[in-house]
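Illustration: Sugar ABC transporter permease.
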Amino acid sequence: MGTTVTHLPTTAAQPLTEGDEGSVPRYGPGGGERRTRAAVRRRGRRDNLAGYLFMSPWIAGFLLLTAGPMVASLYFAFTDYNLFDTPKWIGLRNFTDMFADPRWRTSVEVTLWYVVVGTPLKLAAALAVALLLNQKRRGQAFYRAAFYAPSLIGASVSIAIVWKAIFSDDAIVDRAQRALFGVDVGGWTGDPDWIIYSLVALTVWQFGAPMVIFLAGLKQVPRELYEAAEVDGAGTWRRFWHITLPMISPVLFFNVLLETIHSFQIFGSAYILGGAGGTCGPADATLVYTCYLYVQGFENSRMGFASAMAWMLLLAVGLVTAVLFWSQRRWVHYEEAAR
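Result:
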């Protein structure tokens, strides 16, 4: 007996149109590609959400501890605010009073002197020690750690107190200069003409951080350049001036930029060496900008005036940074530009 097979009529599956239920076609041309794009978008949203959740502590800290106080200080700069009463809007009076204040002008002069003198001396010491440590010697690891250690502890209050004791009247520095040079100034920290040099000495002593950066840059200078210069008869100074400095100029620029910004922000060591109570040194000899800002804001309760000073400092540092970036085209040599 034969078996009869009945063929049922078949119809091609039609894709759902945009108005049909589900709106995303399950069959037909393009359906799989659309499902893939939708899945990728959902996965991307989940990944972004996870990223924002991990970043949320940093975002909250930035908004509450950095951006928020900056916006508040910008508002306080145009107000009369003493930390206790409601701020009163006074417009530009804080800025006009600032420019007319002789102690403010003194703080600007002391800060500029400190930046112009202290920063180059610190970088020169860092580069000199880095050149010595770049040579092959025994115990290099020990010497690197020993020279870097002051950078870790130099900014602490305890070191500033010890430094003040060392340079005080009849202390070790005072006795040494009397015995060796016959000079008696009665202690550097008590003399308005000498106390600023003790502050610069403390800054130069903390050359460890830029020294490490200089040392890393020196390690990248090809030895073949020095060997070729020696064959041509170039001496030590010519090799340093024509090979070392151009090759490490990006590192030098980085250190100059960072140390200049740090010099403008000096506070703790100047305040402790100069003494508390709003003095900032005998005859305002260590009255750096941030020290006077602290005195006005927290000792005189003139928070509006201090906020105006803070924004002026920000503008000054921004201007100096812009000038440094503009000047790098003349003396900073990058490897990509040389190609």
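Reading the tokens back as a structure: Confidence is low (pLDDT under 50) at residues 1-27.
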